[in-house]
Amino acid sequence: MKPPEAHLGDTPPAVSVCLEHLKKRADFLACARAKWRSTKGLVLQARDREDDDPTIRVGFTCSKKVGNAVARNRAKRRLREVARLVLTDQARPGWDYVLIGKAQVTATRDFKDLQSDLRYAIKRVHE
């Protein structure tokens, strides 16, 4: 597997380089205290880091309410792909976003509806 920097020509790598993943619990907790919006397919938490770093950071979580490990992993895979498609265009630099899967919905909801859910949530959070 080649690193993202090793792509050829003008085509971008498969993984977006402008999105970083949240890994620390403190970052998730900071997002939990900030703005949020719930839609039918997911919950979005967002916060402005108020620093000079223009990086967009994103985290994903699914509790055991979503289902067993297979259902949680499927929901998180779908959330990651939706984030890759939507956040690269709609997100604001310097913000952290956490996408939370919902029980019995995130893993089964139509993918286009999941994308529109995220677009709507981002629009409402930034109002």
Helix and strand layout, with pairings?
Layout: E1 19-21, H1 25-32, E2 35-38, E3 42-48, E4 56-61, H2 69-90, E5 95-101, H3 111-125
Parallel strand pairs: 1-4, 4-5
Antiparallel strand pairs: 2-3, 3-5
Please explain how this structure is put together.
The chain has helices spanning 25-32, 69-90, 111-125; strands at 19-21, 35-38, 42-48, 56-61, 95-101. The protein is α/β, with parallel strands linked by helices and 127 residues long. It has one domain (18-125): Ribosomal Protein S5, domain 2 (2-Layer Sandwich). Helix 2 (69-90) crosses helix 3 (111-125). The chain starts with 18 loop residues before the first strand and ends with a helix.
Relevant terms:
single chain, five-stranded mixed β-sheet, 127 residues, Ribosomal Protein S5, domain 2, globular, alpha/beta
CATH class: Alpha Beta
Stated plainly, the CATH topology is called Ribosomal Protein S5, domain 2
Order of helices and strands: EHEEEHEH
Q: End-to-end span in angstroms?
A: 41 Å
- Helical fraction equals 25-40%
Domain module tally:
1
Profile the largest sheet: 5 strands, mixed
**How many strand elements?**
5
Radius of gyration: 15 Å
Produce a short descriptive summary:
With 127 residues, this protein is of the alpha/beta class. The protein contains 3 helices and 5 strands. It has one domain (18-125): Ribosomal Protein S5, domain 2.
